């Protein structure tokens, strides 16, 4: 059997980190910007993010939220009101101190000493404090509750070590903020939005996740409870793909978010916040990419079908383009996942093979090539990106008639979506290990299971204080973290692996991004 010649230079199994960077470049997703820690998201990458936005925004609005927008600049005093919150973000804050530049006399510019701000402004790392101020103005009575807001925005957190889409100093996200009458309603909403994130990850991104509560030391600064969805990348590392926080009355007390109850008394609101970011795009790459580039799930693909006419630059091209346009029009009039099929007729100049491999690397779900002989025979050559190679180590083209392709491709897109999810789910389940009951066994497992060992589920006693600090330090020495306590996991039935105390739940442990 001949050997497959993959489209990328680096294999996932050889160097996953380098492979990831190569996919981003080869798929034309993003590039370095020249500004430290920031990236340029290119049209194909931004098109994927737009699809995430559209699908998730519909889910958020279906749960009764309204979109809004708040300033990118937040007065420093807003953060100082909530001590644990500012402590959690202090090392990552970018701060504006002046409002004007002047010439330095040497051809450069410097901040004007006369233009120093009375109060420094923090470039938004998150918006709990400034949205809390608005909530305090907008909420007066129990009739104003619940208040459900969502914002699509950019944020800045000054990261020391960055990686495109996964950890950048500036990134795009949505952040939801709600206010409720009591803890029961707020906690229920925290979990409702966690479920929204799970559904988006699994049904739209085809990325299986495990939803659960984060341990005490992994909570969002100022939160009472933090819940997350955790996804396993192909190297076995965890990616925290989204979080939902119950904030209790901490932020309400700091911002003065009170309401008059039905009896006329004044009560503090219970608030929540929750968010996902362009990190989801990085997760999609690392869950679905292969040694030939990206594989974009059809629900997220800016173009679900790309038609490539094999043009010869002669008089036959007009008939071939007309034949291809017939397929494009038929597909554009069809629907998949309740939306019109997104189909591109790529008639740009270029060699057919080069154009095909460009779209393979970008991960277009279905690529259709059409040559003169195909037209004469009334067929097309169809390639599924999720099943690229045949047994002969050549691209696995199928040759349906043009009409059959037009009728079958919408269903095929749904099959590809399901196949990508099933592949990722099965891989994750095969790489979660259970039954490890001691620190020595945990050390041995991660030391002896190669570069990509996956996760371990262990018994957990919910240690706190000094006992929790010791667990964190012991895991840090092994380059491990606890991820979350999976919702619906089997009940604890033994001793905590870390403390020896009776366990109360099970928790996932692994390496993480």
Automatic annotation (TrEMBL):
UniProt-recorded name of the protein: Proline--tRNA ligase
Domain Aminoacyl-transfer RNA synthetases class-II family profile: 45-297
Purpose of the protein: Catalyzes the attachment of proline to tRNA(Pro) in a two-step reaction: proline is first activated by ATP to form Pro-AMP and then transferred to the acceptor end of tRNA(Pro).
Cited CDD domains: ProRS_core_arch_euk
Compartments where located: Cytoplasm
InterPro entries: aa-tRNA-synt_IIb (IPR002314), aa-tRNA-synth_II (IPR006195), aa-tRNA-synth_II/BPL/LPL (IPR045864), Anticodon-bd (IPR004154), Anticodon-bd_dom_sf (IPR036621), Pro-tRNA-ligase_IIa_arc-type (IPR004499), Pro-tRNA_ligase_II_C (IPR016061), Pro-tRNA_synth_II (IPR017449)
Catalytic activity, as annotated: tRNA(Pro) + L-proline + ATP = L-prolyl-tRNA(Pro) + AMP + diphosphate
HAMAP family: Pro_tRNA_synth_type3
Domain notes: Consists of three domains: the N-terminal catalytic domain, the anticodon-binding domain and the C-terminal extension.
Pfam families: HGTP_anticodon (PF03129), tRNA-synt_2b (PF00587)
Keyword terms: Aminoacyl-tRNA synthetase, ATP-binding, Cytoplasm, Ligase, Nucleotide-binding, Protein biosynthesis
One Gene Ontology cellular component annotation held by this UniProt entry: aminoacyl-tRNA synthetase multienzyme complex
The keyword ATP-binding is assigned to this record: yes
Gene Ontology terms, MF aspect: ATP binding; proline-tRNA ligase activity
């Amino acid at each position: 059997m001949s050997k497959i010649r993959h489209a990328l230079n680096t294999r996932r199994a050889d160097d996953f980190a380098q492979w990831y960077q190569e996919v981003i470049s080869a798929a034309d997703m993003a590039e370095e910007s020249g500004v430290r820690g920031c990236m340029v998201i290119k049209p194909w990458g931004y098109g994927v993010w737009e699809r995430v936005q559209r699908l998730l925004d519909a889910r958020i609005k279906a749960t009764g939220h309204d979109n809004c927008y708040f300033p990118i600049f937040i007065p420093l005093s807003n953060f100082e009101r909530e001590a644990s919150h500012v402590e959690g973000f202090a090392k990552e804050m970018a701060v504006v101190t002046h409002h004007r530049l002047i010439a330095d006399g040497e051809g450069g510019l410097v901040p004007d000493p006369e233009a120093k701000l009375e109060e420094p402004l923090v470039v938004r790392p998150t918006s709990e404090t400034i949205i809390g101020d608005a909530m305090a103005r907008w909420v007066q009575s129990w009739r104003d509750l619940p208040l459900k807001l969502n914002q699509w925005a950019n944020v800045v957190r000054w990261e020391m070590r960055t990686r495109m889409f996964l950890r950048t100093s500036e990134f795009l996200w949505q952040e939801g903020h709600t206010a409720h009458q009591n803890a029961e309603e707020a906690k229920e909403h925290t979990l409702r939005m966690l479920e929204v994130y799970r559904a988006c990850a699994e049904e739209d991104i085809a990325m299986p996740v495990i939803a659960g509560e984060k341990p005490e030391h992994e909570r969002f600064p100022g939160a009472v409870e933090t819940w997350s969805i955790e996804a396993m990348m192909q190297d076995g590392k965890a990616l925290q793909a989204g979080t939902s926080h119950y904030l209790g009355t901490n932020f309400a007390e700091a911002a003065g978010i009170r309401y008059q109850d039905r009896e006329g008394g004044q009560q503090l609101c219970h608030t929540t916040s929750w968010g996902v970011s362009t990190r989801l795009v990085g997760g999609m790459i690392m869950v679905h990419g292969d040694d030939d580039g990206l594989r974009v799930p059809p629900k997220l693909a800016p173009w679900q079908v790309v038609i490539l006419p094999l043009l010869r630059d002669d008089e036959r091209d007009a008939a071939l383009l007309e034949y291809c346009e017939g397929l494009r029009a038929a597909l554009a009039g069809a629907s998949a996942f309740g939306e019109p099929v997104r189909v591109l007729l790529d008639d740009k100049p270029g060699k057919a093979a080069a154009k095909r491999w460009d779209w393979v690397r970008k991960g277009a779900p279905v690529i259709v090539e059409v040559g003169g002989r195909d037209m004469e025979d009334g067929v097309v050559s169809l390639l599924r990106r999720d099943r690229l190679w045949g047994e002969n180590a050549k691209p696995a083209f199928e040759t349906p008639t043009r009409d059959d392709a037009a009728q079958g491709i919408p269903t095929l897109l749904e099959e590809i979506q399901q196949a990508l999810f099933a592949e990722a789910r099965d891989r994750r389940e095969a790489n979660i290990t259970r039954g490890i009951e001691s620190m020595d066994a945990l050390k041995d497992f991660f030391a002896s299971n190669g570069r990509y060992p996956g996760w371990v589920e262990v018994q957990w006693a919910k240690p706190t204080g000094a006992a929790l600090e010791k667990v964190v330090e012991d895991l840090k020495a092994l380059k491990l973290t606890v991820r979350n306590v999976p919702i619906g996991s089997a009940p604890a039935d033994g001793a905590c692996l870390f403390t020896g105390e009776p366990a109360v739940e099970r928790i996932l442990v692994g390496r993480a991004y």
